[in-house]
Amino acid sequence: MRGLLCWLMLLLLLQPWETQLQLTGPRCHTGPLDLVFVIDSSRSVRPFEFETMRQFLMGLLPGLNVGPNATRVGVIQYSSQVQSVFPLRAFSRREDMERAIRDLVPLAQGTMTGLAIQYAMNVAFSVAEGARPPEERVPRVAVIVTDGRPQDRVAEVAAQARARGIEIYAVGVQRADVGSLRAMASPPLDEHVFLVESFDLIQEFGLQFQSRLCAIDYCSFGNHSCQHECVSTPGGPRCHCREGHDLQPDGRSCQVRDLCNGVDHGCEFQCVSEGLSYRCLCPEGRQLQADGKSCNRCREGHVDLVLLVDGSKSVRPQNFELVKRFVNQIVDFLDVSPEGTRVGLVQFSSRVRTEFPLGRYGTAAEVKQAVLAVEYMERGTMTGLALRHMVEHSFSEAQGARPRALNVPRVGLVFTDGRSQDDISVWAARAKEEGIVVYAVGVGKAVEAELREIASEPAELHVSYAPDFGTMTHLLENLRGSICPEEGISAGTELRSPCECESLVEFQGRTLGALERTSANPNGLLNRSLAQLTARLEDLENQLANQK
């Protein structure tokens, strides 16, 4: 010991301590880190030895990236008691820390290292003292510097500290007990236990410690919560996702990449991501075309279509939203344009309101947006008044209907869920006299007799029914076949012989599909659907006979 003291005095004479002990090499720009030095200032630490530890701290500080969002530093010293020199929250500048370390006065009593570890665990690394909250997963590192054997137990309390996520480095100077150092330090011990016997080894530990901070594995501290993979970077832990997945805004979870948002998919209606690829979908009642992007629609002929929608209180708000969605599904299979199909919408309850006339919108997108903006009226069910409004106003040229001389079909689609509170017979007959083709769609408590009176002849082709609002979509295919000119029997499309194989297969498929859709319907709807098929077959037979 006497030789060591002489050697230390010689070093002091040669050059200043701070200059000699300051570590060389670039400052390590680490991510967030909470670092607490636990310094032994017991009476066994002689003044020159304590000065060695003081200057050891002074030499480490220049290599740290100190700051409130980077490395926070705290210092405590201990002997028979524990004293906080400055907590983690105290300083954000290296100069202020150096000043506090220079003013440090040793306690010069016993060596209660276990008590110091407990203080570090419960106090120094608390949020109140400046440590980041556990959920932020900021690494917590304690460096214990001691010169002798502890006078209390250290193994159990050190294990508790490590279990709370504190990484412990144990540095022994001169007479330190190696067994105690190993009991305190975190694994692997060869990276966390240092026995310093000379100044050169103090400097060597400082360099190794700085290098360790630069390569710290942030993913090993706490629960990083990365769904796929955690990668330790100089700025802290970063979550990465596997190929085909995107990191979510929370920075931890991963979701299958939505290719539809990252590519020009060109889908007309809807794009759906599927793993590393995507596909286009069409609304119910329309088929995807050969290009894999567009959906078929009514492209032949011109139609002026007015929809009369029941907005009475029996419909209820949530069901009225389903009605609007159903209307937009009809719009999806129409070729809406000023020269093609024009669409108008009228809502009725105790009164009638034109939501938008035939001539207002020129694209399907504009029509659908306007439908979604329609507000529910509630009140009564004046279906007769709505039919009168349709005949007298909705199909007028002032409202956007094309002149009769152009022979553009005029189609009205009446949607209702109950019995009318006024007479419908007069204006239902008047609509047919005016050449308006009327389709009646009933839901729930709609009266079949009224639907048949409203609809054009034959009623089997112009009346549709759904038992509730949630099952309306099965009506789309029937309406498509009726409203779309190229889908109907009389559209002028090429007719195949009904005896050809393709015709038989197609007929079988349509028949089975119709039976499945109507098997659960009440009020004789199965018979009505069979009658509808019979009427279509008769129409087909008549056209074949005329061709002969």
Automatic annotation (TrEMBL):
Pfam families found in the cross-reference section: FXa_inhibition (PF14670), VWA (PF00092)
Keyword Plastid set for record: no
InterPro entries (alphabetical): ECM_Assembly_Org, EGF, EGF-like_Ca-bd_dom, Matrilin_CC_sf, Matrilin_CC_trimer, VWF_A, vWFA_dom_sf
GO molecular function annotation: calcium ion binding
Source species, domain of life: Eukaryota
Signal peptide residue numbers: 1-19
Keywords: Disulfide bond, EGF-like domain, Glycoprotein, Repeat, Secreted, Signal
Annotated compartments: Secreted
Keyword field contains ATP-binding: no
GO cellular component: extracellular region
Domain VWFA: 34-213, 304-479
Main location as per UniProt: secreted
Name the record gives this protein: Matrilin 4
Native species: Pan troglodytes
Lineage: Eukaryota, Metazoa, Chordata, Craniata, Vertebrata
